[in-house]
């Protein structure tokens, strides 16, 4: 069990509401966001990606310090949240965000998964 390797996912394989994801991504840019009505906690929206595409990563609290432009992040147990019909990558309390070794890949910025809009369809049986 201790010898079990994590399965790493590429950005272009992400789908709505995926959970338990492990990714290695590079921060393309990071922007701190002021949340209206909330005085506690810090929040930043970061554009992160790998050689297959990019997506918005929602960094919270201590994650904001790690998500600096140019850093390579190793995300463990990440998930996909939906915000206004588009995907956002997030790591909650059960996951980890660590700064990894500098990326040896170049980020594919022409494939932005956060620009794809999804529509929820409920099927009544």
TrEMBL record:
Q: Which InterPro entries match?
A: NA-bd_OB-fold, OB_Ssb-like
Organism, by scientific name, is: Rehmannia glutinosa (Chinese foxglove)
Where the record annotates domain Single-stranded DNA binding protein Ssb-like OB fold, the positions are: 14-99
The identity of this protein, by name, is Single-stranded DNA binding protein Ssb-like OB fold domain-containing protein
